Structures are given as structure tokens and as C-alpha cells.
From TrEMBL:
SUPFAM superfamilies: C-terminal effector domain of the bipartite response regulators, CheY-like. Transmembrane segments: none annotated. This is LuxR family transcriptional regulator. Residues 6-116 form the Response regulatory domain. Residues 132-197 form the HTH luxR-type domain. One of its GO terms (molecular function) is DNA binding. Pfam families: FleQ, GerE. InterPro entries: CheY-like_superfamily (IPR011006), FleQ (IPR010518), Sig_transdc_resp-reg_C-effctor (IPR016032), Sig_transdc_resp-reg_receiver (IPR001789), Tscrpt_reg_LuxR_C (IPR000792), WH-like_DNA-bd_sf (IPR036388).
Length: 200
């Protein structure tokens, strides 16, 4: 329950940010408000839960930023009158919960507690998956295909045959792929592919 003592609020609307900060502070929760993700990136917190206003691409951008910092915070998205489709998309993007705003202090604290419990039960698995996916997303389509081949245990020659390219070209893609993934060895790349659910 320690995580809840620090809430990282990301919302470009100054009025709403102030209102949420006030609601949470009165509930004894320390709030670090940020206007946007670049502002958060300049003062990266040590721990906490992120409450982010759900705008197009916001969760993806936040996850990319977390991957760069090598740190995972549970993400709770919120917006006014969210539709089911929007909530589903936010959860698929990596949020662990969704809150409709406005919300009472009690409901908000309750939602945060539940989300934190869920985040703790997920452990680092979600972090690894999110970071692996963020890394894999940096790859070109061809590099991803090469990674798939490597993860399936194929040699450069066999990957080349499968993709109709030369083994030398496979080698180049493989080197670029390892570099972008931040992998020192092929085994690292395979682990990342598994964590990103590229292979089962």
C-alpha cells in the first residue's frame, strides 16, 4: 500500500489538475502534478502510481518513456464519460485501471488501492512485457521478421531463405536488431521476443 503515498498526475488541463490534486491531498495522498510526459521525464520520480488523462497516444508515449527510464509505474487512465471502447483500448495499451472523472475522494482512493493491489500482484511481469514491446516497436518490419526467425531457432541461412534475402543481409538486420533491442547476445533478443509475446 506504500505506492499510493505518491501519485504522479499527468493532465494538460490546469483546472482539472488542480481539482484532482486538491481531492487527493485532502485524502492524505502526495500528488506530483505534471502537465505532460516530457515534463515528467525531466523530473523522473522514484516511485508511485500514474494517474493520466487519457488522450490519443498518451499511454503509448508514457510507456515509451518508462521503457527509456527502465522503470515501470502502474498506470491508471481517466477521462470524462469514457466509452467502453476507449476503456478497453487504454487497458490494451497498458493501463491497469480506468476511472471516470469526476469522482469522489473516497471512490478515487478506493480505485487507487484496488489498482495498486492489482499492480503488485502482476509484479514485474507487466514491466518486462511493456519494456520488451517498447523495444520491439523500434524495430523495422524486416528486423522483426529476423527476430522471429532467431527466436524460432533458425540459422542466418534459413532465415535468409525464408525471407528471400542473403545470409549477409540477415546478419546486418540481426546486428541492427540486437543493437536496437539493447541485447548483448542472441539469448537476450530471444528473451525480449518472448516477453513481448512475439513467440510462445
Amino acid at each position: 500500500m506504500d505506492l499510493i503515498s505518491n501519485l504522479i498526475l499527468i493532465d494538460s488541463d490546469m483546472r482539472r489538475r488542480a481539482a484532482i490534486s486538491h481531492v487527493l491531498s485532502s485524502g492524505g495522498i502526495h500528488v506530483e502534478p505534471f502537465e505532460n510526459i516530457p515534463e515528467l521525464a525531466m523530473a523522473w520520480p522514484r516511485s508511485g502510481v500514474v494517474l493520466i488523462h487519457d488522450q490519443a497516444g498518451a499511454i503509448d508515449e508514457l510507456i515509451e518513456s518508462m521503457a527509456q527510464h527502465g522503470e515501470w509505474f502502474p498506470i491508471i487512465a481517466f477521462s470524462e464519460e469514457p466509452g467502453a471502447q476507449r476503456i478497453v483500448q487504454a487497458i490494451l495499451d497498458g493501463a491497469i485501471d480506468y476511472i471516470a472523472w469526476p469522482i469522489s475522494p473516497e471512490e478515487l482512493t478506493d480505485s487507487l488501492s484496488k489498482a495498486i493491489t492489482r499492480a503488485e500482484s502482476m509484479g514485474n511481469a507487466k514491466l518486462r512485457e511493456v519494456m520488451a514491446r517498447a523495444r520491439v516497436d523500434r524495430l523495422t518490419r524486416r528486423e522483426r521478421e529476423v527476430l522471429g526467425g532467431v527466436a524460432s531457432g533458425l540459422s542466418n541461412r534459413l532465415i535468409g531463405e525464408k525471407l528471400s534475402i542473403s545470409p549477409r543481409t540477415v546478419e546486418i538486420h540481426r546486428a541492427n536488431m540486437l543493437n536496437k533491442l539493447g541485447a548483448n547476445h542472441t539469448s537476450d533478443a530471444i528473451r525480449i521476443a518472448i516477453e513481448a509475446s512475439l513467440v510462445n
